[in-house]
Amino acid sequence: MKGTVYKSTGSWYTVKTEQGVFYECRLKGKFRIKGIKSTNPVAVGDHVYFEIDNKGDDEFGVIYEIGERENYIIRKSVNLSKQTQIIAANIDIAFLLVTLNNPPTFTAFIDRFLVASEAYKIKAVLLFNKVDSYTKEELDEVKYLAHLYRTIGYECIGISATTGKNIDKVKQLMIGKVSVFSGHSGVGKSTLVNTIEPSLNLKTKEISDQHLQGQHTTTFAEMYDLSFDARIIDTPGIKGFGMVEIDKEELAGYYPEFFKLKEHCKFNNCLHVEEPKCAVKEALENDEIAWSRYKSYLQILEGDEEHFRKDIYTRE
Ligand SMILES: Nc1nc2c(ncn2[C@@H]2O[C@H](COP(=O)(O)OP(=O)(O)OP(=O)(O)O)[C@@H](O)[C@H]2O)c(=O)[nH]1
Ligand SMILES: [Mg+2]
Ligand SMILES: [Zn+2]
Questions:
Q1: Whose CA is nearest to atom 12 of ligand 1?
Q2: What is the dihedral of CA 67, 94, 40, 213, to 10 degrees?
């Protein structure tokens, strides 16, 4: 039988068949996929093949094969340095929810997300959530950021998951697609799913729980069918993206505004760091490229896995 993984708890997988029937499945024996070192070989969104095991009392499925992945997003496992965790697979659009505070989302984190989506060829959209809660100054900051990323070519929408502002625009983008909502814990991913589809009634953080720092309300990624021909994957909050599997020479190719200038650099293998007559650094000096973007580029290039979470998008 063939199906799509809707939920993964690590040992059990909920799989929906093309006929619309859900099965609880396990993985067959030692299951390995070549080329991927991952703590979870099968992820939400994967297309899998399974057979029914009814030897015991309970009937369950056994996954014996996984279909080729169109794409996937991964993060580095926090404690296992070389291990990666696949957050979701076969995605059409990755939405990143961004909040200025409560919790803060820094541009270095946004940039890592965008680099990952470029590398995996997934359309990325930035959703600046909680606009209902901002002061005039904070709204100006949102406008500045939205302008910055729009200029590079990314779609940006200011939304409020609680008041419903601009949610119709988000829904429009989701039609006929598999989307994933990602972002730090507390940015409002599950709240947004509920606003889009109130009948799902997902667990979100209660106001009274908000002092519980570092607590994730959503603990497993899960896919949901929506009533308007769309599917959404709600994911647990992520702290950061590890830039695994990206070569130094490739990185600038994932910064679209750098990539456009590359042909004007003196050296065709220019990394835009120390090289003379570099078009990217000239653009930077002329304020045609944002310093925050260049800084995050250098951090990823240098393999700085620690500082990007704290960094702010100032020039200093
Ligand atoms: N003011 C305001 N608060 C919001 C908005 N969206 C979400 N919140 C609040 O933010 C808190 C966190 O929301 P959740 O939906 O649980 O966040 P999450 O991203 O799913 O968090 P994790 O599951 O931990 O990753 C809740 O108290 C929400 O009510 C919004 O648009 N405006
Ligand atoms: Mg959640
Ligand atoms: Zn250069």
A1: 186
A2: -170
Local structure of 309: helix, strand or coil = helix
Question: Could you read off the pLDDT of 241-261 as tens digits, one per residue?
Answer: 655 567 889 999 999 999 999
Per-residue pLDDT at 209 exceeds 90:
no
Cα of first residue to Cα of last residue in the chain, in angstroms, is: 57
Distance from Cα 115 to the centre of ligand 3, integer Å: 18
Q: Which amino acid is at 267?
A: F
- The set of residues, in sequence order, having a beta carbon less than 8 Å from that of 150 and lying 6+ positions away, is 156
Is the dihedral angle over the CA atoms 197, 200, 202, 206 positive or is it negative?
positive
pTM, two decimals, is 0.88
CB of 160 within 6 A of ligand 1: the answer is yes
Q: Ligand 1 pocket, 191 CB below 6 A?
A: yes
CA distance 150 to 158: 12
pLDDT band at 310 (very low <50, low <70, confident <90, very high): very low
Give the number of whichever ligand sits closest to the CA of residue 277. 3
